[in-house]
Amino acid sequence: MADTVVYLYAVTDADAPDPAVPAGVDGAPVRRVVAGPLAAVVSSVDAVRFGEEALQRSLEDLRWLEATARAHHAVVGAVAENGPVAPVRLATVYLDDERVRALLDERAAAFTAALDRVRGRVEWGVKGFATPSAAAAPAEPEPERGGGGPGASYLKRRLAQRDRATRGQEAAFAAAEEAHRALAAAALAHRTYKPQDRRLTGRAEEMVLNAAYLVDADAGDALRQVVEERSTGAVALELTGPWAPYSFATLEEPS
């Protein structure tokens, strides 16, 4: 068994400059494997630590996962500074350089199409959160009226609060959908994702939009303007980026 295996970060053009990053995953030097017009950006890593069984255990270790993801994304970001990049999934490992060259040869058309799709372009992310509003605020206690007693009055107030919260939530989703349509019109392509749970966002507000937008590298101001204009009323929008185009450099066409 060989002492090392090949960790794959991304695919780029063969004539792109070497990424300016001193080391990648596990502190390993970053290099390139070239096949025709394509280059795979890789590192040689320990065969035991990155073997199949070890990787399965490591992927359940949050500290390992965070450190590896940071190193992986740092390499991908460095590659993106020099040209188009098609990132691959975290912890993608091949036995040797020949297997990597075979991948580049077999998927040459798909990789080339993915690189052409993102050439000169970047990804921006937008998340939308429902904002507290009068419609969703707790109701003021109503004066007691005859009939039903205090229990019935309490139930009525709770039902009214729930109705207001439902209307506020519906308004937030509607505003998020309108914002998404405007953002998509300003972008070359877009992808939407399932809103994240509050436990992941760390926020009390409900997420109502989670999307990525592909634009030309110098067109970020158009998205920023939409976010500023639409971040009012029922929804608050947050713009992040620019990023390497993870959402759009896949081997499938985005919407």
UniProtKB/TrEMBL annotation:
Top-level taxonomic group: Bacteria
Keywords from the UniProt entry: Gas vesicle
Major place of residence: other
GO biological process annotation, one example: gas vesicle organization
Keyword rRNA-binding appears in the UniProt entry: no
Record region (Disordered): 132-154
GO cellular component annotations of the record: gas vesicle
Cellular compartment(s): Gas vesicle
Family as reported in the entry's similarity comment: Belongs to the gas vesicle GvpF/GvpL family.
Protein name: Gas vesicle protein GvpL/GvpF
Originating species: Pseudonocardia kunmingensis
Classification of source organism: Bacteria, Bacillati, Actinomycetota, Actinomycetes, Pseudonocardiales
